[in-house]
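Regression test case RT-17, inverse folding.

Input:
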């Protein structure tokens, strides 16, 4: 998520006042990490997910005091209106390692939460970017036209991982 924050900052020149929305499995590690860092840094964050896949209460409770202190607004909803005003839509694979047996159920549950042209337009902003931690399954969590569009920052994110990893290693040495 440090590389993701770096990508937001590079793209928009700021973090405060931004809103990003994770679309898909709100319980997964990426959604949880994004929610925590957003709460700490004062970035508005939403999860657009089916209720069955909302993040657990303990993660929500962990984020609440950080968000109150930083001024971040955290939203979790299965209603598409939660993406309105998002500067970034973010997603991850629908079937995580070790959950392959749940593939058909996940696809059924998550199909309405796919990042596609219509969902990007639902933000109401022409400047909305798309992010993904990679690798992606095109046609599932994101359509190819969004993934390959000028709004996609996935390769910038990937490059920024190299820089943040080097910075962490330097700090630890």
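Golden output:
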């Amino acid at each position: 998520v440090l590389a993701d924050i770096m990508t937001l900052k590079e793209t928009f020149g700021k973090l405060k006042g931004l809103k990003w929305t994770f679309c898909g499995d709100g319980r997964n590690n990426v959604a949880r990490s994004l929610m925590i860092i957003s709460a700490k840094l004062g970035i508005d964050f939403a999860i657009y997910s089916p209720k069955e896949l909302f993040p657990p209460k303990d993660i929500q409770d962990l984020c609440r005091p950080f968000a109150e202190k930083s001024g971040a607004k955290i939203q979790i909803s299965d209603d598409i209106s939660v993406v309105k005003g998002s500067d970034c839509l973010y997603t991850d694979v629908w079937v995580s390692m070790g959950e392959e047996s749940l593939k058909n159920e996940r696809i059924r549950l998550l199909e309405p939460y796919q990042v596609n042209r219509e969902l990007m337009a639902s933000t109401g902003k022409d400047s909305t970017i798309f992010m993904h931690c990679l690798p992606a399954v095109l046609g599932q969590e994101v359509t190819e036209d969004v993934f390959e569009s000028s709004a996609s920052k996935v390769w910038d994110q990937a490059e920024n991982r190299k820089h943040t990893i080097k910075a962490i290693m330097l700090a630890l040495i």
